[in-house]
Amino acid sequence: MQLINRKKSGVRKIKKIAPALAAASCSLLSVASSDVLARGEAGTWDFEVASLFYSEADDRVMAAEPVFSASKTFEDGEVLNLKAVFDTLTGASPNGATPSAAPQTFTKPSGNGTYAIAAGDAPIDDTFQDTRVALSASWLAPINRDWEYNAAFYGSKEYDYLSIGTSGGLKRYLNSKNTALNFGLSFSFDNIEPEGDIAKPLVEMAHLGTSDSFDSTRDGSSDSKTIIDALFGVTQVINRNTIMQFNYSLSLSDGYLTDPFKILSVIDETAGANFGGNLLDGNGNNIYLHEARPDSRMKHSLYWQTKYALSNGDVIDGSYRFMLDDWGINSHTFDFRYRWQLGSSYLEPHLRYYMQSEADFYKRYITETEYLAGNLQEATADYRLGDLDGMTVGLKYGHKLDNDTEFNMRVEYYLQTSAGDEGFGLLKDQDLYPDTRALIFQIGYSF
Amino acid sequence: MVETIDKGVLMKKVIWLVGLLFIYVSSSFAQVESTSAPLVELPVGKDKLIFSDYRGKVILLDFWASWCGPCRQSFPWMNDVQARYADQGLVVIAVNLDQDKQGADEFLRDIPATFKIVYDPEGTSAEQMDVMGMPMSYLIDRDGILRHRLIGFNSRKKIQHEDHIRALLDETVRK
Amino acid sequence: MRFLRLAFVIVLGSIVLSACSELGVKPWERDVLARPEMQLIHDPVEAGLDDHIYFSKEASSGGRGFGGGGCGCN
Questions:
Q1: Quick one: closest CA in B to A325, which residue?
Q2: Which of A68, A130, A197, C67 could make an SS bond with A218 (beta carbons 3.0 to 4.6 A apart)?
């Protein structure tokens, strides 16, 4: 969970019942849930407390993320949701450089010192430690029998990052509420102010204790981006046991989309002992460049979901998402859950499969030739923009204590595998695409 | 993958698309019209509701189910109007449409009803009355003529509905 | 533009579908669909936490409701 990739979403909780709650629940833009439904206990507050623990293997990122959510359903079906999410993360994250047959020394992004990586080890930056607080409020209300609107505000703050956003949506029911059309628009503004300032794009990382000037690699103390999302969705009741949803969403990001903490290695192409090793500068230090991404991104997503209830009370939930963007990435996400009802308890196995292609400007490393030509405009070695597959296997257990109270927990295992250019010379001996493995544990209580 | 697109052009197209949808979408609002002939009977489950049995009364005929959220609000209100207007001739009849009576029983344990409940798990009565939402209630005047329909239930509709009830109670039998 | 055209087809298709379809149920036949676990996003807290994880580890996000904007995903 690198800084640059934080996400907070408009989570909130339904609890036992609240139908409207369910409808309100979906995210800020709240377009997802259909409220073909049911029992909202008007005039009461519903609460949910949950905590997520996320832990990557090999001492990488660890995060704890408690969530507090409160919803109130009013007499006329309006739903107010207030939510607070806190998260703390510590640990190390790949900095983008390739592993090397020789030890490597990197300058911390803050400019305050260096960190060393042993020969053959994956270069990871362990200076991450952050705490984030996110608050959101959302409101959903019927306008009349056929229309419903929602509005939400959101803000989050962490040490070097601020994000604020607002969204609004309209829902139109048709065909005796068997069909619902959803429209949503959202706008958000993010500002990053990293310790040690913003790195200039594709300039060489300064080596501390040499003639390099750290300050000359810096370019302003903060930068920002705006994100506009638009969504159109159709929810359709198929029959008594089946409901289906189809969404198209468009997302436009503009501004500083680069990760100020990521770098790329420059690899020596000259025949000889260092062929495939790190290219050295005049002081004999490895050359690394700060990454640079385009300053805009347009994403399209198509999302399809179907839920089907079996006659024994079990529920099957399947979804598929296709995403395409102008960075050259496309991805497929398959998600499947089976809720196995066991009296007042349930067990829910979960399978998720994700695959993405790499961004046009993704490079595991920069070659000497590319470096010397000096005409690279954009490059990243962030594996999250590379060719990537992800697999999640999980199990959730829930138990209803009474009509109003539920306890649940889940354990999931997440495995990411990457692939790509295997390099040449010395680089061939290095593991350029290590797996990422994470354990996810969540515990929740709603009342 | 995607050809480079002028963002302005794209946004225009998106706005156009959304506009088109709104035009399409802002059609359709089903108006309720009153029938002028007296209602005769309504099959409810294995029984029949014979409207002439309530001749001279104002009937509030309500359709509900245990899983319906607003029904939890309409029941206390129906208890209330039943108590207040029974003397003046109001009769409340609630048709339960649960497939499984157990749900209805639990609901009634939670929110006991002081008015008449009948059961129609097949939904034939709802079909015949053209029930359009849950809950839905019908006001039938002292002559057995269907006068008002109310889809859904909330605090605003409650007031409106009660005005209708009072107005119908003020009328006298014409025939 | 290819994608936008596809979106058009989908939108128009769904309008046609919704306008003349025999799909759906009567208002009193929603007992199963009314169950909390039949809501499309039945556990929003969990969905939000998941979105956070995958947003942080993958290049795609959102789709289900809103990703990116509004929720301050960065």
A1: B2
A2: A197
User: Is B100 inside a domain boundary?
Assistant: yes
Interchain proximity C69–A184, CB inside 8 Å: no
A37/C33 CB distance under 8 A = yes
Task: Give per-residue pLDDT as tens, B4-62.
Answer: 556 666 666 666 666 665 555 444 333 344 557 888 889 888 889 998 899 899 999 99
Domain range for B98 is: 37-170
CA distance B37 to C65: 49
Q: Do C26 and B131 touch (CB under 8 A)?
A: yes
Count of domains for chain B: 1
Which residues of A144-240 form beta strands (DSSP E)? 147-158, 161-174, 179-192, 223-239
d(CA A207, CA B19): 56
Read off the CATH number of the domain in which B53 is found.
3.40.30.10
Q: Do B34 and B145 contact (CB within 8 A), yes or no?
A: yes
Domain assignment present for residue B84? The answer is: yes
| CA separation for the pair A309, B67 (Å, rounded) | 16
Task: Give the Cβ contact number of residue B93 at 10 Å.
Answer: 21
Mean pLDDT of chain A, nearest integer: 88
Instruction: List C-alpha distances in Å: A207 to A94, A126, A201, A316, B109.
Output: 19, 18, 16, 55, 75
Average pLDDT for residues B85-98, to the nearest whole number?
95
Cβ atoms of A113 and A132 closer than 8 Å: no
Per the listing, tokens 């789709």 go with C63
Whether B14 is in a domain gets the answer: no
The model's pLDDT over A62-111, given as tens digits with 9 standing for 90+, comes to 999 999 999 998 888 899 999 999 999 898 899 999 999 999 999 999 99
Residue C71, Cβ density class (10 Å: 0-12 exposed, 13-18 middle, ≥19 buried): buried
B71-85 vs B101-110: helix axis angle to the nearest 10? 60
State the chains in contact with A (3 or more Cβ–Cβ pairs under 8 Å).
B, C
In this structure, the dihedral spanned by the alpha carbons of residues A366, A372, A376 and A379, taken in order and rounded to 10 degrees, is 20
Using an 8 Å CB-CB cutoff, list chain A residues near C64: 26-27, 32, 247, 303, 305, 319, 321
Q: Using the predicted structure, report yes or no on whether residue A25 has a pLDDT greater than 60.
A: no
d(CA B145, CA B167): 14
Structural domains in chain A, CATH included, are 3-446 (2.40.160.40)
Chain B: residue whose CA lies nearest to A181: B25
- Residue B54 belongs to a domain: yes
Contact B24 C4 (CB under 8 A): no
Predicted pLDDT of residue A14: 32
What are the pLDDT tens digits along chain C (74 aa)? 566 666 666 666 666 555 545 788 999 999 999 999 999 988 889 999 999 999 999 999 888 875 333 333 44
Q: In this structure, are strands A124-142 and A147-158 parallel, antiparallel, or unpaired?
A: antiparallel
Q: Is A220 left (phi over 0), alpha (psi -120 to 50) or beta?
A: left
Name the residue among B3, B21, B97 with its Cβ closest to that of C28: B97
Task: Give residue limits of the domains in chain C.
Answer: 31-60
* CB proximity B109 to A under 8 Å: no
Cβ–Cβ below 8 Å for C28 and B134 = yes
**What pLDDT does C72 receive?**
37
Length of chain C: 74
Nearest-by-CA chain A residue for B106 = A403
Residues from chain C that touch B132, judged by Cβ atoms under 8 A, are 27
Coil vs helix vs strand at A267: strand
User: Could you give the CA distance from residue B161 to residue B80 in angstroms, rounded to a whole number?
Assistant: 13
A-B C-beta contacts closer than 8 Å: 66
Distance (Å) of CA B32 to CA A176, A425, B138, B146: 14, 80, 11, 11
